[in-house]
Amino acid sequence: MNPERKEIYTSLAPLYDTLMGDVDYESWADFIDEIMQTHHFDPIEILELACGTGSLALSLAELECYTITATDLSPSMVDVARGKAAEFESDVNFFPMNYLNINLQKKFDCIYTVFDSVNYLKKKSEVKLFLENSYKILKPGGLLIFDFSTPKNSLQSVDYLNNEEGDAGRFRYLRSSRYDAKEKIHYNEFEIDELDEQTGKVINTFREVHTQRAYSLNEMLLIVEQTPYHQVAKYDGFDLIDADENSARVTMVLKCQTQQ
């Protein structure tokens, strides 16, 4: 059976929480909360871009001091997020949206997107567009928080990601992972089987190919310099310590100028 090629995060949506099973979303929410409280006087209206199945937004909502809107390009991921929100009786508002085509009238105190979402933008012009689109819907003094993985992260992770397996309910996946160091492109290919719930036999096989570009800190700083943001901080990993060219993951904190 030849796998059917699917848009990313469609067939993978039911398996995403299994794929991310080792991620400590509560600690990540605490980190985002710490950044916001450190660099913003009183953030209330929060927007998450590329929210996936909503685990981070739902964890952040437990702090009960934010009004959270969360969006993702994939309707399938948003459907899972909405189901989890209903289960937890959360009032986080989830809906599909492409963060390269933001069409919101509302403005926010803080916008964040994490876990390599920006790495899916493989052109520097796309990263700049994402930054500019976000700027337009930030209140004066508002924060944009985003992270990105660097070539070092890809070099460290490619071996343990390759041939990774997982399953959830009637779905299972096998991931193949490779990194092109010359082009700085990381490829993750997922073969996803849908199983018959009675017999356990494979009834459908799907394929999703995810490509991400690894950015060095210097490359990202040069892009940021082309935008109207004020750079507030660049953090290494999940600590409020300054990132450098040896950082595997960098969290950027940018501030909208007080006058737009």
Number of contiguous helices: 7
Residue stretches low in confidence (pLDDT < 50, at least 5 long) are none
Structural class from helices and strands? alpha/beta
Radius of gyration based on Cα positions = 18 Å
Number of domains: 2
pLDDT averaged residue by residue: 95
Instruction: Give the strand order, joined by hyphens, for the main sheet.
Output: 4-3-2-5-6-12-11
Distance between the termini: 55 Å
Shape: globular
**Could you give me the name of the CATH homologous superfamily of the largest domain?**
Vaccinia Virus protein VP39
CATH top level of the largest domain?
Alpha Beta
Tell me what portion of residues adopts beta-strand conformation: 25-35%
CATH architecture name of the largest domain: 3-Layer(aba) Sandwich
Q: Can you summarize the main beta sheet?
A: 7 strands, mixed
Textual characterization of the structure:
The chain has 2 domains: 13-149 and 215-255, Vaccinia Virus protein VP39 (Rossmann fold, 3-Layer(aba) Sandwich); 152-213, N-terminal domain of TfIIb (Single Sheet), CATH 2.20.25. The radius of gyration is 18 Å and the shape is globular. The strands form 2 sheets. It has a 7-stranded mixed sheet, with helices on both faces. It has a 5-stranded mixed sheet with strand order 1-10-9-8-7. Helix 2 (25-39) crosses helix 3 (55-61). It has helices at residues 16-19, 25-39, 55-61, 75-87, 124-136, 151-161, 217-224, and strands at 4-5, 45-48, 67-72, 93-96, 108-113, 138-149, 164-168, 171-180, 185-195, 202-213, 230-236, 249-255. The mean pLDDT is 95. It has 7 helices and 12 strands. With 260 residues, the chain is α/β, with parallel strands linked by helices. Strand 3, helix 4 and strand 4 form a beta-alpha-beta unit.
